[in-house]
Specification:
- With 137 residues, this protein is mainly β.
- The chain has a single domain (21-130), classed as Translation factors (Elongation Factor Tu (Ef-tu), domain 3).
- The chain is built from one helix and seven strands.
- A hairpin with a 2-residue loop joins strand 2 (44-49) and strand 3 (52-66).
- The termini are far apart.
């Protein structure tokens, strides 16, 4: 067996040994807000994860990344919207559970797109950071 074939076998065994994605209807994610209008609390979206579309909402705005600033910051009192081109860590809640993986564990199960529920236009891209066990009330 040559080195390439051995590496392929090891890579395949590691992939098979990885725990399966866990179903969750709440998870923590980093979002890049793409829409020209800011998000509003209570907005509903279609969340596209792989081939599935489920209704979702941004449950909580946890942190905001300040481009060119000191980094992540807590939202100020009453700050609940995402401005155009902003990056934030949020908690997402979906109407039905999804089989998710944090993006740093499995890229194929860790990315999603938020679509406007009325127009079906993409409003945000996201990567999953933690599953339901790490999301808080």
């Amino acid at each position: 067996m040559n080195g390439t074939a051995l590496r392929d076998c090891v890579d395949a065994s590691i992939a098979l040994a990885r725990a399966p994605a866990r179903p969750a209807s709440r998870f923590r994610a980093d979002l890049v807000w793409l829409h020209e209008e800011p998000s509003r609390p209570g907005d509903r979206f279609w969340l596209r994860h792989g081939t599935r579309n489920v209704l979702a909402r941004i449950r909580k705005l946890e942190r905001i990344l300040e481009p060119g600033g000191p980094g992540w910051r807590d939202p100020v009192l009453g700050e609940a919207t995402l401005a155009p081109n902003s990056i934030a860590r949020v908690e997402i809640e979906t109407q039905q559970p999804l089989a998710i993986d944090p993006c740093d564990t499995a890229q194929e199960g860790g990315a999603f797109v938020l679509l406007d529920a009325e127009s079906d236009r993409a409003v945000a891209d996201g990567i999953i950071r933690a599953g339901a066990e790490a999301a808080t009330d």
